[in-house]
Amino acid sequence: MADHPLAPTSRPGAAAAAAAAPRPASPRRAWARAGVLAGVAGLAAFVASGALTDVPESALADNAVYVPLIADEGASVWAFQVLMSVSALGLAVFGAGLRRRLDEQEPVGSLVPSLALGGLLLAAGLCLVGGGIATELFWQLGHADETDPDTVMANLAILNTMGWVWAGVGLTAGAVAWAGLAHESVGRRLAWFSAVVAALVAVAQLVPLQYLAALPGAGWCLVAGVAMARSARTAD
């Protein structure tokens, strides 16, 4: 029998089922780019803080001589604060994305994804602590002639150390190295590079030069972010 002209042309609920069908996955690379941003901002902060230590060697022995030499570097302190904030945000986003990426590749129950996230969150916390002193130092330099130079130098010492203790990135690099070498969850080149960075950060942490961890740490974020972004683009 022919269909009635007013009969429905599709089964009831078909439209709802079509609407509920999963949509194609969109490219997920923003988190990896956040790692690149964190690395670039960390290295830029290192450059910005250099103006605060570029003084004659003869000034190092007397705070009262040192402080007037950097009194006009308030802009460098402000830039440092902004860059540390950007680094912290980038590290947190990169860590969240990296955890998701490793969760998709690692064996069920593996601690590697959580360790990778935890390491970057530790570094992000140090960025906020190190950048936090910038506010106080900025205003002190703006009133250097009214501020105790010993207090200024104490805050400068915090700015020149705390924000650079990126030891947590070493933990993340070690976790990524294990993921790549043991389970091939990442490319082997990235895994070996991560192993080298983890070793460098460990050495920096075991000697009285913890702030040097920021250099290999920021470099790792930059390289790993680029590698992860390329990997996600290939998979799209």
Keyphrases for this structure?
236 residues; mainly alpha; 9 helices
Show the helix and strand layout:
Blueprint: H1 14-20, H2 30-49, H3 63-70, H4 74-103, H5 112-142, H6 149-159, H7 167-183, H8 188-206, H9 214-235
* Low-confidence blocks of residues: 1-26
Q: How do the SSEs run, as a string of H and E?
A: HHHHHHHHH
Number of domains: 1
Percent of sequence in beta strands: under 5%
* Morphology call: elongated
The helix-and-strand class reads mainly alpha
From the alpha carbons, calculate the radius of gyration and give it in angstroms. 25 Å
Query: Could you tell me the number of beta strands?
Result: 0
Question: Helical segment tally?
Answer: 9
Span from first to last CA?
Answer: 48 Å
Mean pLDDT: 88
What is the helix content?
55-70%
Task: Specify the biggest β-sheet.
Answer: none
Describe the structure.
- The chain is an all-alpha fold.
- The protein has one domain (29-235).
- Helices cover 70% and strands 0% of the residues.
- It is elongated, with a radius of gyration of 25 Å.
- The relative contact order is 0.15.
- Mean pLDDT is 88; it is low at 1-26.
